[in-house]
């Protein structure tokens, strides 16, 4: 009987130890891994423009008769300057957007009352139009921490037969820093 009692004690002891292990694992929480990602972007520069706007005056003396089909007025220089760029920013991409003229891709719609007139914006260095959806990259000059876009704008007529009136348009420029 003594052997039976010892065997019973050992069995109960083993069962007690086993039940502690079972209850511990039953109470254990599921584990989860946190996968953390992100992107460090270059810091922005300061656009050198009063109030965040650059006003371009095409002038008050554009002759309607001079705007024949596929011609434009005199080019007016437009400079967009960015300053105080962080040293980690090496180039800036400008993305141009505005209401595209129905007459031709690359021109902006004139919302003024001169008829058959559109607005043309062009990169001075390449002669390429900077129409709706176009981009332009400028390097940041490390010695000055500045970047500059040299553009030019003018009134343009795709079809001619221009009627006098105002020329008005807005082009938004969004910057991405690299």
Overview of the molecule:
Helices cover 15% and strands 28% of the residues. With 178 residues, the chain is of the alpha+beta class. The chain has a single domain, classed as Sandwich (Immunoglobulin-like), CATH 2.60.40.1090. A hairpin with an 8-residue loop joins strand 5 and strand 6 (118-123). The radius of gyration is 35 Å and the shape is elongated.
SSE layout:
Layout: H1 2-27, E1 46-47, E2 71-72, E3 76-83, E4 91-97, E5 107-109, E6 118-123, E7 135-139, E8 147-157, E9 172-177
Antiparallel strand pairs: 1-3, 2-8, 3-8, 4-7, 4-9, 5-6, 6-8
The CATH topology: Immunoglobulin-like
What is the helix tally? 1
CATH superfamily: Fimbrial-type adhesion domain
Helix content: 10-25%
Largest sheet: 6 strands, antiparallel
Low-confidence stretches: none
Q: What's the level 1 CATH class?
A: Mainly Beta
The total number of structural domains is 1
- End-to-end Cα distance, whole Å, is 86 Å
Strand content: 25-35%
Features:
9 strands, alpha+beta, three-stranded antiparallel β-sheet, 1 helix, 15% helix, six-stranded antiparallel β-sheet, Immunoglobulin-like, 28% strand
Quick recap of the structure?
With 178 residues, the chain is of the alpha+beta class. The chain has one domain (46-177): Fimbrial-type adhesion domain (Immunoglobulin-like, Sandwich), CATH 2.60.40.1090. 15% of the residues lie in helices and 28% in strands.
């Amino acid at each position: 009987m003594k052997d039976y009692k010892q065997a019973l004690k050992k069995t109960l002891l083993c069962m007690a130890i086993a039940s502690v292990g079972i209850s511990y694992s039953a109470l254990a929480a599921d584990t989860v891994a946190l996968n953390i990602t992100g992107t460090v972007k270059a810091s922005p520069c300061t656009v050198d423009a009063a109030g965040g706007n650059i006003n371009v005056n095409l002038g008050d003396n554009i002759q309607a008769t001079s705007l024949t089909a596929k011609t434009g007025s005199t080019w007016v220089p437009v400079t967009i300057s960015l300053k105080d760029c962080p040293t980690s920013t090496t180039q800036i991409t400008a993305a141009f957007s505005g209401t595209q003229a129905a007459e031709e891709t690359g021109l902006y719609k004139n919302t003024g009352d001169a008829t058959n007139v559109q607005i043309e914006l062009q990169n001075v260095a390449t002669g390429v139009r900077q129409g709706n959806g176009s981009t332009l990259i400028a390097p940041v000059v490390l010695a000055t921490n500045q970047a500059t876009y040299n553009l030019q704008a003018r009134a343009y007529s795709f079809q001619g037969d221009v009627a006098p009136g105002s020329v008005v348009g807005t082009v938004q420029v969004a910057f991405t820093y690299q």
